[in-house]
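hey can u check if this looks right to u? its 184 residues, i copy pasted from the old doc so theres a chance i mangled smth
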Amino acid sequence: MDFIDGRSVEACWDELNQTERVDVVSQVASMITTLQSIPLPQQSPGPVGCESCSARGFWFTDMGTGPFRSTEELEAWFNRRLTISKQFNQAPDDVPPFQFDRLVLTHQDIAPRNLILGLDGTVHLIDWGDAGVYPEGLEFASLKTRSYTAPEFTDMLLEKVTQYEELAQQMEWIMFALTTGQYL
């Protein structure tokens, strides 16, 4: 681990002018693109380097989140949550089942609190505790769902990254099953 001399983007965002904000957001968008283009060290979803570990992050509960040996197992897990949400009228019956075409490297917690703006203007992404190999679009869904934590930053970032609106909506429909519904 290295020490990065700088300030969290969360702490300095209000002091940045519009040009500096655009630069920060552009660097983060580039990070997302780079992460998603890295050849994967594994073909099963979950934390990098630990195929026997449970999935971690915002979209995964402490109850039965893997390990997932395949994309199909991950789809089945999410589809079970979708079924629970539908059974309790928390999601429309016509929401399609999850189907993941591609796994990519995903941070899952990109937020100003996890970004350090170095003294040279370079943005550094920290707190990789939830990172792993997950479906393409999960990063977008994570950003969109938690945009309330940093609305301006997130809105600017969402404009610069590939859009996965259908997946983001599907993920929102299963929130009931990830919270209250996980105990059913």
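The mean pLDDT is 94.
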